[in-house]
């Protein structure tokens, strides 16, 4: 049975945005599992997502305080439809990232990360897939706010799609 995934990170609510955009909430409603790669900023967003999402997996980020660190790990791992996922907020500089993450996450098929606010989809020399959804609320120097959707099905990650958040 396929699992519809929503990957988000760096929401920074309420610092960068008062709330998640309605488009993101619709994506939450459509997903079987939401993965949040840190920098929530306030526990209330975690609680709101946990109450609304069918399932939620998250980690804390560098902008998350003691309240979020008390309920979220630095690294989360879960096997979804036979795919070994890991998630962490920060992976360091882009240069050399794939080789570093191969060493840091040897028993992982897909690594979800955030921090940079820059969408990322690459494969390491060892076959690890690295995914960063960007940010749905703080695009920094990117052309758009973004998140990722994907489908995990029978050991394969398919339909990986970078979605731009529509203005308004």
TrEMBL record:
Q: Sorted alphabetically, which InterPro entries does this protein's record hold?
A: Calcineurin-like_PHP_lpxH (IPR024654), Metallo-depent_PP-like (IPR029052), Phosphodiesterase_MJ0936/Vps29 (IPR000979)
Q: The organism sits in which domain of life?
A: Bacteria
TM helices/strands, residue ranges = none
For the Calcineurin-like phosphoesterase domain, which residue ranges apply?
4-152
Q: Which UniProt keywords apply?
A: Metal-binding
Q: What class of enzyme is it?
A: hydrolase
Q: Among its keywords, does the record have Metal-binding?
A: yes
Q: Which GO terms describe its molecular function?
A: hydrolase activity; metal ion binding
Is Metal-binding found in the keyword set? yes
- EC id: 3.1.4.-
Q: Which cofactor does it need?
A: a divalent metal cation
Report the sequence similarity comment from the record.
Belongs to the metallophosphoesterase superfamily. YfcE family.
The record ties this protein, via NCBIfam families, to: yfcE
Protein name (record):
Phosphoesterase
Give the classification, highest ranks: Bacteria, Bacillati, Actinomycetota, Actinomycetes, Micrococcales
